[in-house]
């Protein structure tokens, strides 16, 4: 007999392969940025390679001009939604110069769509996941009581992040937002990020109720060539672009108003 964790793992893989993502629209960016919003000034675009499709973030800041590239989607949590999951990668070239420069950084947030206040976050800041490009011991920050981060085994250089949403009631509207905070060339680095497979996960007992209908729905997708093992992008094919966007202060990076 399969354990509860094994059963959940099987259902999780089936849902991933079939594109069944509770609450989210276009979770894997197969339809470009349909269902997602990119605020003005940001540099986010759909990208497709032999591995599939995802959202590609380039730095929006021009030389010496900090700016943010963001994408978000607003959803309402269902009665059994207990976690949020996404896959990401962060790649940078160059060495961080320090000397007061802000580091390029990728963040993930769950916000109130109206006030933009965090609904779930690391204590003291407005994101629940932070990864900057310095490569230092403290470059990755999250509350391990709320968040897990593991390597995406089938896709080198990518990681899967899961956030516990059990503190939020059913019917809660949320904004799921991802940001690449770019500092232009002031930090000595050029950075881009990718996001894929963003979805709200129901609790296992709710998912098991769906199993009888999943076979008919999913079988054609499970055997489709697109669902083969996904490989990392060829970095040489990615172009960096600079664009002056809204500025933010150092103390706004994680603790001040969210740039939207």
Which features does this protein show?
mainly beta; 260 residues; 12% helix; Jelly Rolls; globular; single chain; disordered N terminus; 6-stranded antiparallel β-sheet; 33% strand; 2 domains
Give your account of this protein's structure.
The chain contains 3 helices and 12 strands. The termini are far apart. The model is unreliable at 1-22, 205-211 and 213-251 (pLDDT under 50). It is globular and about 50 Å long. It has 260 residues and is mostly beta strands. The protein folds into 2 domains: 1-20 and 210-225, no CATH class; 26-202, Jelly Rolls (Sandwich). The protein has helices at 4-18, 204-208, 211-222; strands at residues 43-49, 52-58, 67-76, 81-93, 105-111, 118-120, 129-132, 140-141, 147-151, 159-164, 173-182, 190-202.
Number of strands: 12
Radius of gyration: 18 Å
Q: Which CATH class of the largest domain is shown?
A: Mainly Beta
Instruction: Return the CATH architecture of the largest domain.
Output: Sandwich
Reading side by side through the largest sheet, how are the strands ordered?
1-2-12-4-10-9
State the share of residues found in helices, binned by percent. Answer: 10-25%
Mean pLDDT equals 75
How many domains would you count in the coordinates? 2
How many strands, what sense, and barrel or not for the largest sheet? Answer: 6 strands, antiparallel
CATH superfamily of the largest domain: Galactose-binding domain-like
In CATH, the topology of the largest domain is named Jelly Rolls
Q: Which regions are unreliable across 5 or more consecutive residues at pLDDT < 50? A: 1-22, 205-211, 213-251
Q: Indicate the proportion of strand residues.
A: 25-35%
Instruction: Give the class from helix and strand content and strand pairing.
Output: mainly beta
Q: Determine the N-to-C terminus distance.
A: 48 Å
> So what's the overall shape?
globular
Number of helices: 3
The SSE order reads HEEEEEEEEEEEEHH
